[in-house]
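hey team, just a heads up i'm posting the complex here instead of the shared drive bc the drive is being weird again. everything in one block, sequence lines first with there labels, then the predicted structure for the whole assembly after. its two chains so it's a bit long, scroll down
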Amino acid sequence: MGAYFDDVDLAHFGDLKEHAPELWAAFETYYAAAFEPGLLSRREKVLIGFAVAQASQCPYCVDSYTRQALEQGLTMKHLGEAMHSAASLRAGITLAHGLVAHNTDRKVSM
Amino acid sequence: MTATALSRFGERLAQARGALRAGALATLQVNLGKRCNQACRHCHVDASPARTETMSDDVLEACVRALERWAQLTTVDVTGGAPEIHPRFRELVERARALDRHVMVRHNLTVQLEPGQADLPAFFARNRAEVVCSLPHYTEDATDRQRGRGVFGKSVTALRALNEVGYGRGNGLVLTLVSNPVGAFLPPRQADLERDTRERLRDAHGVVFDRLFTITNMPIARFAEWLRRTGGYEPYMARLEAAFNPATLDGLMCRSLVSVGYDGRLYDCDFNQMLELDLEAGQPRTIHGFDLQRLEGRRVHTGEHCFGCTAGTGSSCGGSVA
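-- predicted structure starts here --
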């Protein structure tokens, strides 16, 4: 066993259907439908996918959605803004959890 | 290029429609030479200021004779290198226009800033040539990464000069932009990029244009060397092959065009020209033997690189084809 994350594994994502084929098929249908253009364009959905991948820290997804974003005519300038949007939200989420500490302190401290 | 790779495209073609054959010819593409004022990283011609190959008087005259003889060739597509550098470029454009042919000039924009070329926009306008300009992306960073530092700024200056003489304003002086990806990936949907580019160039730079073509980077010459050097050749070919789209086949440029090399040799397209893949046996070898009736219906010489024109929505000198 080498590294846990290897880029060649991305192409084998579909191998996971072996363990639960019906559920995998349902996931594939759902995933494809969710990324079909609707009120949001395909490009907007790809950009959301990229930001979620960044915030979720999934290297496979970051790789895949970077490529897809480039093929949508976006550049690293666009992705740079998107990753800061995702990162700043993550920072805000981290800080928001501080409210629990804030409230707990108010309950128990004099 | 390996026999296996050649047969891969052949297999996909056979499954889709059998051999690829030319239809009615409408365009004579004339490559005036490989000399260029730029040396872009994706260039399939390997053009640069150091190249010396240039079309001779003899070949240029034969191109004009072919236009005089065959009225079916309604369009002349003038390319290079930077074709404007050729000493008889302007004469060729004027003679083609005198024969009432539509002239498209593949224009890299920055050549306007070379000595003696400042009046190119006025020359184009006077001859009502369609100007087809290379601009990979509406952002400075992406364009400069592919075409060289400072190219975006110079390109904007050149586009403004074209706008000033009337190009891009929907009045018949057609200004077309050509965008190709800045790397080993497919271009976006042509309509999407055209919309974004129109908005960005207008708002940020006051530049207008008529239409935008997207073109896929061809896995040959300088771009192929870069792919191989960076370990990206096989993944890029796999990406192109996975995106093979039979709906692109009818609109491929090789079905309606013959490409003339600087040395007069004839090819099915600009890319076959760079790979020196001659026309099929029995066809004329050079412009001196040009015979439109024999060339129509000829079998097109295909290879692995043809996945570049048939991936996704397709790619041709006129942009997407499907």
